[in-house]
Structure formats: C-alpha cells, structure tokens
Specification:
Layout lengths: L3 H7 L11 H19 L6 E3 H8 L6 H12 L1 H5 L15 H4 L2 E3 H9 L2
Antiparallel strand pairs: 1-2
C-alpha cells in the first residue's frame, strides 16, 4: 500500500496547467518507460529477458513506481515482445528468439506505446 504522497509523486503536477492532455500524459509515460528500460538494460543490448525483469524486482535501488512498471512489463511481456518484428524469424532449425527467450526489446516497447 502506498501513501497518498507517494501516489501524488506518480502523477504530473496538474496545478501548472489549465487541464491536461492525454497525448502529453501518454508521451510522459512512454518517456518514463523507455528511460526505465534503458536503466534495466545493463548490458545495453536493447533486450531484457523476463528473467532479467524478475531479477530487477529484487533490486533495492528501484523505487515503487519503477517496480510497478517492471511488474507491468512482466505481466505483458509476451504481448509487448511481439509488438515489433525484430527480424528474428524462424531459424533453419525452426525456432526464433521468442521461442527461446521471453523478453522485450526496446523497439518492441516503442511500437507498443505507439499503438496506445
């Protein structure tokens, strides 16, 4: 359970606006998502496996917002992972990267957010 103050930190300060734009809010969420993805992609290969996401939940350096985002990624990893064709089609042995490793590429995430 989060305190009211922690919950307020999640949302942008709307007192500075006459209102809010859904597209601006989605852009802010996408930026948060990509920034967090880059932070979690320790080796910089543009791909995070579900196992890496599970390990990230154990990190004490993630705040509650980032941990909730990691949970979202884990819950939706298959859907997000298929959002972008990474050209990792079926190999000569009949399997693709997605058949071997459940995970998300940075491009998957960008494409997923563009469809919201």
């Amino acid at each position: 359970m989060h305190t009211l103050e922690e919950t307020r930190l999640f949302w942008p300060d709307t007192s500075l606006w006459d209102g809010f734009s859904v597209s601006d809010l989605l852009a802010e969420i996408q930026q948060f998502g990509l920034t967090t993805f880059d932070r979690l992609d320790v080796n910089g290969d543009g791909f995070i496996s579900a196992a890496e996401l599970e390990r990230a939940l154990q990190l004490n350096e993630l705040n509650w917002r980032e941990k909730n985002y990691v949970r979202f990624l884990l819950t939706n990893a298959e859907t997000i992972g298929r959002a972008f064709d990474d050209n990792d089609g079926v190999s000569p042995c009949g399997i693709s990267r997605h058949d071997l490793i459940l995970g998300i590429s940075r491009n998957d995430l960008i494409e997923y957010f563009s469809k919201l």
